[in-house]
Amino acid sequence: MYFKEVLVIYLSCFCVSVFTQDDMRCLDMKPPRNFALSEIMGLYFVVQIVHHRDDGRNKGTATVDSCPLVQLTRDGRSVTLLWNEQAGHVQYLFTVPNVETNPGFWMSTGPQNVTVIPGSMLQKAYRQFAGTVQVVIVAKNHVVLTFCSPNSDLYSVVLSRDQKMRRVDLFEINEMLIKKDLKEVGIKEACRDSASSVTSSLLVLIAVFAVSRL
């Protein structure tokens, strides 16, 4: 057990210290440390996804006709993120190497459990994520998670306790991301006039979460 804990801490330091020199690597965004991991667990609406790397696919601002829901749960040093939308659901597993001193730095552990509707856009576009998540913003009613996979993905997900957020709040979040050297390449907005999508997503999420707890 001691060796495993030392190895996890070593890998955490390696990811943060090595992936700092190249724009295609994962920077230490110095996530806030003055919060308890348990405070940010629970149910959220995905109101915005901000892409930070130009891969030729996600430029500009677009509104998607869906309202994904995210459920965050914790078990010791493990965090489960269950993403659900009409096209299907994805379950991410993370390890938090330093729960007490750095609760905002997570490392992915293993492949995601993906269940999608055959032929859906999620099935066509989804690719396995391997990297880190940093909780870069923590507020009363929202959090922002930045996903980074070296030489591949770099995007931030704005999660809100409420289905919609004020434009001024989203603008402030985007400004804070820019100050962290996370440039804004493209934005996808969700949960706008999607009441029916929310209802169906919530029912599926409750069912999936109940099964996963058995």
Which sequence of SSEs, written as H and E, runs from N to C? HEEEEEEEHEEEHEH
β-strand amount = 25-35%
Low-confidence stretches: 1-22, 206-212
End-to-end separation in angstroms reads: 26 Å
Largest sheet strand order? 1-3-4-5-6-8-9-10
The second-level CATH architecture is Beta Barrel
What is the CATH homologous superfamily assignment?
Answer: Calycin beta-barrel core domain
| Total number of distinct structural domains | 1
Specify the number of helices. Answer: 4
CATH first level: Mainly Beta
For the sheet with most strands, the description reads: 8 strands, antiparallel, barrel
Mean pLDDT: 81
Structural class: alpha+beta
Number of DSSP-assigned strands: 11
- For this structure, the CATH topology is Lipocalin
Shape: globular
Amount of helix: 10-25%
Keywords: Signal
Structure description:
With 214 residues, the protein is an alpha+beta fold. The chain is built from 4 helices and 11 strands. The chain has an 8-stranded antiparallel β-barrel. 25% of the residues lie in helices and 33% in strands. The protein has one domain (37-190): Calycin beta-barrel core domain (Lipocalin), CATH 2.40.128. It is globular and about 40 Å long. Residues 1-22 and 206-212 have low confidence and may be disordered. Strand 8 (132-138) and strand 9 (142-148) form a beta hairpin.
